[in-house]
Amino acid sequence: MPSPILLRDLSLFDPRWDEARPGHEVLVEGKTIREVSDRPIRSASARVIACGGRTLMPGLIDCHVHIFLSTVNIRDLEAVPPTLMTARAAVSLRAMLDRGFTTVRDTGGADWGIKLAVETGLLAGPRLFIAGRAIGPTGGHGDSRRRTDTAPRTCGCCDAMAYTMCVADGADGVRKAAREQMRQGADHVKIMCSGGVASPYDPLDSLQFSASEIAAACEEAAAFGRYVCAHAYTPEAITRAVDNGVRTIEHGNLIDAASAAKLARAGGFLVANLVTYFAMKDRAAQFGMTGEMLAKNEIVLDGGLRSLEICRDAGVEVGYGSDLLGPLQEDQSLEFLHRARVLSPLEVLRQGTLVGARILRQEDKLGIVEPGAFADLILVDGDPLKDLGLLQNQGARLPLIMKAGALHKNAL
Q1: Which DSSP symbol is given to 20?
Q2: Which domains, ranges and CATH numbers included, belong to the chain?
Q3: What is the pLDDT of residue 196?
Q4: C-alpha closest to that of 63 among 250, 280, 307
Q5: DSSP-assigned letters across all residues of 101-150
Q6: d(CA 150, CA 110)
Q7: Are strands 21-29 and 32-37 parallel, antiparallel or unpaired?
Q8: What integer pLDDT is reported at residue 158 of this predicted model?
Q9: Separation between Cα atoms, residue 173 and residue 179, nearest integer Å
Q10: Is 208 within 8 Å of 234 (Cβ atoms)?
């Protein structure tokens, strides 16, 4: 086991507090935090790192990424074999960790192999929580076939699109697909309950998966000790999902007060991702996204910021998500600034730490700085509660990044 690491002369921000507190020290031993104190910590064997009064906080959590979706126009994935898909994912994972995201939840595509590669140190990246293949109905958001394609996609060996998504119909079909993802190591099951921006043929307000299909996925997930997250934009889709057992709503841009209240009563979460719509508006056309897709993007872009206010008023906890595709992933940290247009920096930072940990059912291990928690830590060159811009520029103002007690970056 490597020597303990003692972080000294730091201002500590635990998101359960309302402010950063100076004069703290943190001792890391193995993969976890051993001691946190506002007095000097004694350790004869520890490597000491002087933090120069900078702010230490938990690593960031992005609850909606797609590490295998490496193109903006997802149709282009038809010509991407899994080898190239994985190579591109390796670059994306390292970049996410460089930005201070020590944990990410993949909501469709990432498999047990890439997760194990990160866990065993073969690839540098955040700790991964995976859904396996996203499950959608025929003609829905997960059905990427062209209108001239009548046969179902059956092989993922030469087609990254087929590898990352699957089509299932009927309660029994969805039940089998959900079971298969969990057999393959999924931490959660992803289903499609409304139309989407990146799919060309389904209207945004289309209702996808019936009540019985959604209930089948949720029943299987619960039986396996997992949960279901659902792609859903409209109040109708959100209501159907929540009524049938879905725990987290992904996107939810068009949520209204009534569906937000229902989600709150159920103890569910919304995982918003505003940055992807701004990025697609500005740059997606140059990467081949069609006019039809961009028109749908305008609709959800308009509702995105309002969704944060509606959820705050209803008492719905909102997780941090980015949902960026391919080269747009470089905008991952801009989500902080978009949310800050309607929320305080403290609220935004809690969404990217505490709420994310609760979504992942890791509230005693992630998103906090206390003994026994994972030593997933970032050091910020300033106070992020006063300036969220410190989290921008691909991690340039993060001189130290630690994941599971190992130093990914130390520029001090």
Answers
A1: -
A2: 5-58+367-410 (2.30.40.10), 60-359 (3.20.20.140)
A3: 78
A4: 250
A5: EEEEEE-SS--HHHHHHHHTTSS---EEE---SEEE-TTSTT----TT--
A6: 27
A7: antiparallel
A8: 76
A9: 10
A10: no
Task: Return the pLDDT at 284.
Answer: 67
pLDDT score, position 160 = 84
Cα gap 103→204, rounded to integer Å? 30
Q: Residue 294 corresponds to which amino acid?
A: L
Q: Tokens 């590669």 sit at which residue?
A: 117
For 14, 15, 40, 56, 398, the CA distances from 24, given in Å and listed in that order, are 11, 15, 8, 9, 18
22 contact partners, CB below 8 Å, separation of at least 6: 10, 11, 12, 53
Which residues make Cβ contacts (< 8 Å) with residue 69, sequence separation at least 6? Answer: 77, 108, 109, 164, 325, 326
Q: In what order do the strands lie in the sheet with 317-320?
A: 165-167, 134-136, 189-192, 228-232, 248-251, 269-272, 317-320
pLDDT at residue 159 in the model: 83
pLDDT means per 10 residues, the chain with 412 residues, are 93 98 98 98 95 98 96 83 95 98 97 98 98 92 71 71 90 98 98 84 86 98 98 97 98 96 98 91 73 74 88 98 95 97 97 98 98 98 98 98 98 95
Strand partners, 402: 377, 407
- pLDDT at position 203: 80
Which residue type, as a one-letter code, is found at position 19? E
For position 335, what pLDDT does the model report?
97
Burial (CB count <10 Å: 0-12, 13-18, 19+), residue 305? middle
Kind of pairing, strands 47-50 and 32-37?
unpaired
- The CA–CA distances, whole Å, from 87 to 29, 68, 217, 372 equal 32, 9, 31, 34
